[in-house]
């Protein structure tokens, strides 16, 4: 009996629309008797006679067939020329990418990034001895000024043999600066829309400015997902995801991923993953691929709900401010319309005081008061209850992760809590 080929992704067909791609990619070869879904491969080791470096799989900390279908799927969805890399969590992915910043260089990061990314960046900057600069990522001029300042400050300071990405090779980057090449002055980190303030960065303008000055650009695409935004098409070098959120979509997995079209960057990030060793489990990755199948329909429904809820919140007397890029008067609306295929399903709104915000989050019956986002169920949270949330986030700010429940039920519950 012939064994079905374990290889996945028979359908790298650029003609398919993204909502078909999420259903079709990462499936086993279509031969008689093959599974429709990839099996969960639990092996920790694989047959690898001879040259271990040339084995497709050798040891599951380096690579495993359990990851391949999801990695190929995400690479294709992000319009990368290479498969993605899964990590044990979004923050593990973020830390691996931030670790690429060279000693003596600068990481420019949004003031209102996901607070875990900020905390991680601070810790890695201290250990690796690079500068950390926070900026309002929606203020393009301020970001360019920060790039200029960081570029001047680090000129000549980065050791040439430092193992960092630097401008130069066919991909645009080499894994390590060699004598005679200018080492990278650092990295611009973009999160858009930001968590939880929902500021929208001008990604094409920022990536162009950063590239001109030799900076790597990484984009956290968690809020948008590749269905709404493909940062590599907008000039970014690296895309990062908390797969925990929309991609997996059911609040039952913690997982992260990185995607790039640069061989050298992928190699460096792969090494980082293998050497640190905090890898993803086979079952989590399998669940993430299963979640990905319904990403398009989940997002459609959640976004439609979010648009109406944001409009109603904006008109509600108890609400001081509503931020949602889908609102025509939102400061990020024009940019989001230009670079995204939709506005996502996260809303932030502010009420007068922290106590009022807490009372609302406690009064809801259908919305779940919980942290995280991107699952099918609607979540509500006053963000400043996290001591690590930046002080510039208003005390009365509530973040909503709008799910796929019935719109009238969601609004009735929220309206009652607001009252
Ligand atoms: C935008 C964003 N990026 C990254 C992360 C971190 O992801 P994880 O919790 O999977 O480590 C989060 C978590 O909330 C997030 O909101």
TrEMBL record:
The keyword Transferase applies. Keywords: Aminotransferase, Pyridoxal phosphate, Transferase. Coiled coil: none annotated. Its cofactor is pyridoxal 5'-phosphate. One of its GO terms (molecular function) is transaminase activity. Pfam families: Cys_Met_Meta_PP (PF01053). Belongs to the trans-sulfuration enzymes family. This is Aminotransferase class I/II-fold pyridoxal phosphate-dependent enzyme. It comes from Brevibacterium permense.
